[in-house]
Design a protein that fits this description.
Chain B: InterPro entries: RNA_pol_sigma-70-like, RNA_pol_sigma-70_dom, RNA_pol_sigma70_r2, RNA_pol_sigma70_r4_t2, RNA_pol_sigma_r2, RNA_pol_sigma_r3/r4-like, WH-like_DNA-bd_sf. Chain B: Pfam families: Sigma70_r2, Sigma70_r4_2. Chain B: Belongs to the sigma-70 factor family. ECF subfamily. The complex is a heterodimer of chains A (698) and B (179). Chain A has helices at residues 11-21, 27-45, 62-76, 81-92, 94-100, 104-107, 112-117, 127-139, 154-167, 172-179, 191-195, 216-219, 264-274, 286-291, 361-372, 402-411, 420-434, 458-470, 487-496, 507-516, 518-522, 638-654, 664-673, 682-697; strands at residues 247-248, 254-258, 308-317, 320-332, 343-350, 380-386, 390-398, 440-447, 474-480, 501-504, 524-535, 540-546, 566-569, 573-582, 606-615, 623-630. The longest helix of chain A has 19 residues, at 27-45. Chain A starts with 10 loop residues before the first helix and ends with a helix. Chain A has 698 residues and is an alpha+beta fold. Chain A has 3 domains: 27-227, no CATH class; 247-261 and 278-335 and 524-591 and 600-664, Immunoglobulin-like, CATH 2.60.40.1230; 337-515, Rossmann fold (3-Layer(aba) Sandwich), CATH 3.40.50. In chain A, strands 7-6-5-8-9-10 form a 6-stranded mixed β-sheet, with helices on both faces. Chain A is globular and about 85 Å long. In chain A, a hairpin with a 2-residue loop joins strand 3 and strand 4. Chain B is elongated, with a radius of gyration of 18 Å. Chain B is built from 9 helices and no strands. Chain B has 2 domains: 1-106, Rna Polymerase Sigma Factor, Chain: A, CATH 1.10.1740.10; 107-179, Winged helix-like DNA-binding domain superfamily/Winged helix DNA-binding domain (Arc Repressor Mutant, subunit A, Orthogonal Bundle). The chains are: A alpha+beta (698), B mainly alpha (179).
């Protein structure tokens, strides 16, 4: 690149250059931003657009709203807080909660927004709103003071101001303004604004609560992770990390990660899309989306001494002709099902009040019924429930006694708050009692959200699960419903419990998780499976692991058997994709260094070297398998191409920078052409979801 | 209808709670906001984050719109302030400089002279101190020196000085490059 040749520096050239370099806004991002702005606008007005209501919006939970409101009150520390707390107190009772429910009888129909609007001091038509606006304007030198009091949720507005209005006897004006509409129950009046919050579908971190220090920063609501205030950014925390960056082989030739056979992310993405919203970016874990689908990889030979077989393929990257995708597929063996050891299953079922929703407890019951049909008479089942207190709903019962089990299942009813720890302890105790030599014990936790009561630190909970794992009882987590789904805790528990986390939103998904893949989910054939690839700098200039952000391991962890990693279940397959840039490719993003040795010693003809470590079930010492990755670029088979399409889809949803012009059209075409046999229709569904996402980003 | 309304009346209506007015106002100016965000940050990703910050905060900030300035002036000011906040936060968090440093990554393929020239100019722009670059970003967006001064909260004279200082520095960089 040469500097411009002109003698004098003219701004016009700079102007042209800048105009040339300035990109057009991405339509999807643009739409998301406009939507976010509109939602914040609506929230500020204390109103919401009824047409956007969805039956189970992920923000419907009453608890988080109350938490936010309490936070707001403490941070503001206004005198009125005491009054507001009185109003809140009503909410915290079960009866108060019921009042919140859509309750057509109380606040029904289309007039709801008006009712809600009236007591809101910021409501547009009310004269005092204007006054307030002006006071604001005068007190605040327009936009000069960096951002002032962006009210992230109406809770902040409504709690200190609306509540006293509604409650205090001297607030006669408020009473009057309520007089011409149907009077709602007084205690309820201030509250709907608090609850009827429309969360931006764009992301968890967008609705940050104000920070106490009054920092100007607090006003801006940004998605940057460091911006998220200490408590909880939204009702559904998602576990995720920033997407893996491109690594330069010379500098960091070794990439290490743990396998991940979870599928929760795909189900959450599907649930969001079918509700007409793009999933929060953090909910998208690309590897879980890819691994949701069964792939037809060659199974290990019967006499092989490894319980799985790696398949490595190199093919051209769909979104970049100058790079290649390296697909590493592991196929677990399918031991003869007839020989499987007896199972001890403890269902740990969350029966807190929030589970009373068709997509939660009722779906859970149906799901378990499906599963029951696939158990053997010699398997044993127990049910532990937890709500305010933990209880044994069904003592260990042979799976053959179907009617006893079904009756116990039917008796389950939702009510009370959640004591995750108490339930977990009891479930493990029951599992311990059931355990016998040669049997497999597993606790299956079914919940819709967080474990609030009891142990407040998720760390304490995961440590507990970890200790139990070492004693031989594994834990799987099934998530139900949306609203306060705590994906982060689910992930942490399942990863530490050597189990899988799955999210069940439909009976079809229950079928997949609990019936079709039951064996794999419950019988591990290899534990702590770690993957390490050493890339050959003579062949690969740069590489990037797609997904697995939450599963990254340090290089030295690979050989450290004390470091936990993912389990491979019977018949499971795991897929990992690397995008590699060959040496000399124009797609290379970094320039070669001038002062470093030009040529690095490395075997020609090998892209890299794949190492796998795993432990046989019950063993403490890992085994190692090594195989070179050849450089031969092949045409992708159906399985590889479909995995690439899904990986591309995941990256589109995450807003990746690496895809260039490649978009939904290409992803859909690629996935559609590579659906293969698709006996269960999973891939067809994926194509439909891609089309849905495409129309939502337009 | 709404599209024929002036910015000012839209902003007043929006401040009064008219959601359609707010939507129309933002729709009308989003692209320019994004463009400015890009010029303040130097990368698409940063610009998107910054625009999102502004979009999220705008409804609340609307209350502070007094109608004394043009809506666009006010909007640019919100954007520039948000960019300042963001930079400050970045220093606080000791995060490696993103954005301008990434310009190398964003370079388009193709080796023709115009592209090389653009690359050089953008890289040079990235090496200017923040205040000079912010000022240039506004001037290059066709604001007068007076308008830019109003946005930045500085006098017109200071804007002119900054522009000439920026030109001087850019010229020096060019000479160094050629030498």
């Amino acid at each position: 690149m040469s500097p411009p040749g002109d003698d004098d520096f003219d701004l016009d050239a700079l102007k042209d250059a800048v105009a040339d370099a300035t990109p057009r806004p991405d339509p999807a991002v643009r739409a998301a931003h406009l939507r976010l702005a509109q939602e914040n606008f609506d929230r500020l007005q204390g109103s919401r657009d009824p047409s956007r209501l969805t039956a189970e919006a992920p923000n419907a939970g009453a608890w988080p709203g109350v938490r936010r409101m309490l936070n707001a009150i403490t941070t503001r520390g206004r005198l009125t807080a005491t009054t507001a707390l009185v109003a809140c107190g009503l909410l915290l009772t079960p009866a108060g909660q019921d009042l919140w429910r859509p309750a057509p009888g109380v606040l029904g129909g289309p007039q709801t927004p008006e009712l809600v609007l009236q007591p809101d001091p910021a409501a547009p038509p009310a004269p005092e709103a204007q006054t307030q606006t002006q006071t604001h304007a005068e007190a605040d030198d327009a936009a000069d003071a960096p951002v002032v009091a962006m009210e992230p949720s109406p809770a902040d507005e409504a709690a200190p101001e609306a509540a006293p209005r509604g409650r205090m006897p001297e607030a006669e004006a408020a009473e009057e303004s309520l007089a011409d509409v149907a009077p709602p129950p007084p205690a309820v009046a201030p509250a709907p604004q608090v609850m009827q919050r429309v969360a931006p579908p764009g992301g968890a971190a967008m609705t940050t609560a104000p920070q106490a220090d009054g920092d100007a920063v607090a006003g801006l609501v940004a998605p940057a992770p460091e911006m998220a205030p200490p408590p909880r950014p939204d009702t559904e925390p998602f576990a995720n990390e920033a997407p893996n960056p491109v690594k330069i082989t010379v500098e960091e030739p070794v990439s290490t990660f743990s396998i991940d056979v979870d599928t929760a992310s795909w189900a959450i993405v599907r649930n969001s899309l079918t509700r007409g919203q793009l999933p929060p970016r953090d909910a998208v874990r690309v590897e879980e989306m890819v691994n949701y689908f069964p792939y037809d990889y060659p199974a290990p030979d019967a006499d092989a001494d490894t319980p799985f077989r790696p398949t490595v393929t190199v093919f051209e990257t769909p979104w970049n002709t100058d790079t290649q995708l390296v697909r590493i597929g592991l196929q677990g063996e399918m031991p003869a099902v007839a020989e499987r050891p007896p199972l001890n299953l403890v269902f740990l079922i969350d029966t807190s009040g929030s589970m009373e929703d068709p997509s939660k407890l009722p779906l859970l019951k149906q799901s378990f019924r499906l599963m029951l049909d696939n158990l053997r008479p010699e398997d044993e089942v127990a049910i532990v429930t937890y709500a305010g207190s933990a209880g044994l709903a069904l003592p260990a019962t042979p799976a053959g006694e179907r009617s006893t089990i079904l009756a116990a299942l039917d008796r389950l009813a939702a009510g009370g708050s959640t004591n995750g720890q108490g339930g977990l302890e009891q479930a493990y105790r029951v599992a311990e009692e059931m355990a016998a030599e040669g049997e497999v014990s597993r606790v299956i936790l079914a919940t819709d959200g967080d474990f609030n009561v009891g142990v407040s630190e998720p760390g304490g909970l995961t440590e507990y699960v970890e200790r139990q794992r070492d004693s031989g009882t594994y834990l799987s987590v099934l998530g139900f419903g949306r609203g306060n789904l705590d994906d982060a805790v689910m992930q942490a528990l399942a990863q530490n419990g050597n189990g899988t986390a799955a999210y069940i939103d439909t009976l079809n998904e229950a079928q997949k998780v609990l019936v079709d893949q039951l064996t794999g989910a419950l019988f591990p054939i290899a534990g702590d499976v770690k993957v390490q690839v050493e890339w050959n700098p003579a062949e690969v200039a740069e590489y990037r692991l797609i997904g697995y952000e939450t599963r990254a391991l340090r290089r030295e962890d690979f050989n450290n058997d004390a470091v936990d990693a993912g389990e491979l279940g019977a018949g499971h397959s795991v897929t990992a994709l690397y995008e590699v840039t060959p040496v000399g490719s124009p797609a290379r993003l970094s320039d070669p260094l001038r002062y470093q040795p030009e040529q690095v010693a490395g075997a020609e003809g090998e892209l890299g070297f794949l190492r796998l470590r795993w432990k046989a079930p019950g063993e403490d010492v890992s085994r190692l398998m090594e195989t070179p990755i050849g450089e031969a670029v092949t045409a992708p088979d159906t399985e590889a191409a479909f995995a690439a399409a899904i990986a591309g889809f995941g990256q589109l949803l995450r807003g990746s920078d690496y895809l260039g012009d490649w978009g939904y059209d290409e992803a859909i075409a690629l996935a559609n052409a590579n659906r293969g046999e698709d006996p269960f229709g999973y891939r067809t569904e994926a194509v439909q979801l891609m089309r849905l996402a495409q129309s939502l980003t337009r | 209808m709404l599209m024929d309304t002036t910015d000012e009346s839209l902003a007043r209506a929006a401040a009064g709670g008219d959601r359609a007015a707010f939507a129309a106002l933002l729709e009308r100016h989003y692209d320019r906001l994004f463009r400015l965000a890009f010029r303040l940050t130097g990368s698409r990703a940063e610009a998107e984050d910054l625009t999102q910050d502004v979009c999220a905060a705008l409804p609340a900030k609307l209350a502070s719109f007094r109608g004394a300035a043009k809506v666009t002036t006010w909007l640019w000011r919100v954007m520039v302030n948000a960019a300042h906040d963001r930079r400050r936060r970045r220093t606080v968090h000791a995060k490696a400089a993103e954005g301008w440093g990434d310009w190398e990554l964003n370079r388009r393929a193709g080796n023709d002279e115009a592209a090389a020239r653009t690359d050089w100019l953008m890289a040079a722009l990235g090496r200017l101190p923040d205040d000079l670059r912010d000022t240039l970003a506004l001037i290059l967006d066709d604001l007068t020196h007076a308008e830019a001064g109003e946005v930045l909260g500085i006098s017109e004279g200071t804007v002119s000085w900054r522009v000439s200082e920026a030109k001087k520095r850019l010229k020096r960089m060019k000479e160094e490059e050629q030498a």
